[in-house]
Amino acid sequence: MSSELKFSPGAGRVERYELLIEQAGHLFLPEDHWLSNLSNFTAVLKETFPVISWVGFYFMSGGKLVLGPFQGKIACTLIEPGKGVCGKVALTRETEIVENVHEFPGHIACDSGSNSEIVVPLIKNGELLGVLDLDSYEFAAFDGTDKEYLEKLVSTLLNVTSIPEL
């Protein structure tokens, strides 16, 4: 990462996302190691949005989702496709927003304090690489705005980062 994140502390959610997208070319570089880019990606999201209690990646490996770089409490290390929100997204390949995880059938509670979640698929050249998972202690913390901007940020990240087959 060649520069630090700069945004106004009073900035709203959309303004913060816009600034992240604007600065992404300086935050995530093709010459940086993929693991460094992904680690900084989770750090910058957690730093920018205080509503996030946990943010991290799960990657497809051996037919399962395996924990990757993250920020937050200790996490589940393996998730079967179809299990929990991450597993559902691995099958549908569509972003999932869950306003109340306690009402989601089969939710996997790595952190019992988590109340809402958004999961974005990582798809490059038609291949599912994994998912980006964000949790919050607040109910209904994520919405269509988060979906729109997180999908753009993930796309930007995947355009500059080559994630190896795991």
Please give a structural write-up:
α1 runs parallel beside α4. The protein is α+β, with helices and mostly antiparallel strands. The protein contains four helices and six strands. A six-stranded antiparallel beta sheet has the order 3-2-1-6-5-4, with helices on both faces. The two termini are 23 Å apart. The model has no long low-confidence stretch (mean pLDDT 92).
Please summarize what this structure is.
The chain is of the alpha+beta class.
Helix percentage = 25-40%
| Uncertain spans | none
Q: Specify the number of helices.
A: 4
What characterizes the major β-sheet? 6 strands, antiparallel
User: What form results from the Cα inertia axes?
Assistant: globular
The H-and-E topology, N to C, reads as HHEEEHEEEH
N→C terminal distance? 23 Å
